[in-house]
Amino acid sequence: MKAYLSISILLAGILSAHFAMAADMAPAAKATQVLQRIRVQGTEREMGMGIAEFAPNAEKPRHKAIGPEIVYVLEGEITVLVDGAPAKVVHAGGSYQLAAKDVHVTKAGPAGAKTIASWVTVPGKQFNVFVPR
User: Fold this and answer.
1) Of 9, 71, 80, 98, which is least packed with CB atoms within 10 Å of its CB?
2) Is the pLDDT assigned to residue 100 strictly greater than 70?
3) What pTM value is reported for the model?
């Protein structure tokens, strides 16, 4: 009887820890849909433009881009968390910009969000690079 009770307590503890951790994790945002890329004449760079859709409370994990970008919020709201700066909430109709290599997280509000962005990158290189804590 004591063995069953111990196993039940252990299982309950594991399950409650799992659910607590899952509740803290925001859903991941979808990958940005690239709409267009064009070469920047006289350089080895290209500009890109894309749309990103975020489910409610979804986020793009901590990362940095290899080039600058500007983002316009079409729908909902985005919270931008740049390392070393206060959080910035941007509502539909607003925009924000990020310098190359700004380490940041972007999170959608409770209604989700949709953004359109333009960026400068090096052709053939990954634009966003994950940055662990």
Assistant:
1) 9
2) yes
3) 0.77
